[in-house]
Amino acid sequence: MNFQKKIKLEFVLLGFILLFGLFLRIYSLGKPPFWIDESISSLASQMILEKGLPVFDSGLFYGRALIFHYLQAFFLLFGQTEFLARFISVIFGLFTIVLAYFIGKEYSKSGGIISALFMSVFYLEIFFSKQARFYQMFQFLFFLSIYLLYKSKKNPKYIYLALISFFITLNTQIAGLVLAPFFIFHILFYSKGWKKYLASLPAISFLYKFVPTKSLSSNSTISTINYFRQYAEHTTNMIYLLILFVPGVIWAFIKKKRLTLLIMLPSIILLIGVFGLKTFALRYAYFFVFPLVLYSSLLFSFLYEKYGKIILISVIFLFIIPSNLFFPYTYINMIKPVDYNYNDYSAPEIDLKNIPLELKEEMQSNVLMSLFSPSVEWYIKKPDYVFPFSMDGRGEDSISYNKVDVYSGALITTEMPKGEFYFIVDYYSASKLKLNQKEKLDEILEGCFVSYENRDLKIYECN
Fold this sequence. Notes:
With 463 residues, the protein is α/β, with parallel strands linked by helices. It contains 20 helices and eight strands. The strands form two sheets. The chain has a six-stranded mixed beta sheet with strand order 5-2-1-6-8-7. A two-stranded antiparallel sheet has the order 3-4. α1 (2-26) packs parallel to α5 and α4 packs parallel to α7 (135-151). The protein is globular.
């Protein structure tokens, strides 16, 4: 009876953790404007509702994260709002908490609850769970695939679920390919009979997709070191967590060698691969937050089992003190909900949501020119003309597709439109322009005046 009470109490605690995690994630979910990739994903899902496929008006098929975008499109059936566009990531954020619970339980009796608790309030987990983009889905599926693969040794039926999860992970983000060798060797080593042939499925995927991924690498040691430093700068507020993470991993390895290796080896390999990419973006390394929080949390569950309830004081201390109750700008745990996006310079906002309604109506009824078009199309209308630029700053034009804008299908031009028009110049896109492009832009804007500006953009009215 005492055991049954403990089980019931554990599920009650998990229920409260999930409810609190849900509250933190849906609070003001629709208030912040989209950052650039969110508007791309939401536009792709809009196209699914209109055409049945994520085909932009330029004719380009947007094949990234198809499953995510169809799920997102389902929620947009009920209203094309930021809240509903982001809600799918909220769901995967809650799934991630549950996954942390089950993996934590593999290590210790208290490991599940403690891991779920810290996963529910870790600030990056919350911010990425509030985005209309597929990075939360990828993180969940990446580690779900590993967990199911681990479980398949004792229960061979799990291998089918593991393979399904692996292929959905791969569909969500090409980075999931790092799991393929681990699937191949685990299936060959632990599966019996004809099930060994299932290793051919991840093997085929690996051979088919590995070569294209090589083009993503910068092949530059200097670039890799610089990006490593940039990623390291984002950890300055969580040094204590990195310190706790190391003994947590070591202790976890002593307890569950195979599970710890399955989680840590692909995570480290992928993280090193992220450092070697051609561009920097915090979202590429975000997946590593899961093992970071998991093993730093498990350290306290191990200490709790060894030293008893006195360790709960430390758990409470580390739950509350590094939170936004005490550190409103450099917090690790979010206990008080927030109504803004994470301030990530690699994921810039273009705030067209909060422009005056009267100005928005004026732009809707006049010729409109812009740089980055998805945000313009979501919040105002499809632009008539788009000025070319490079999304990552390499080259001069990465948005042209058959001489039109890849997203909106608007005409690509560096010439001034005839008659009256508005021009939306967002700072993100303008910062990517080369010198000769800036000169062309200045020619178009000569004689125009700024009718509105905020920290992200200026809107010019031109005659």
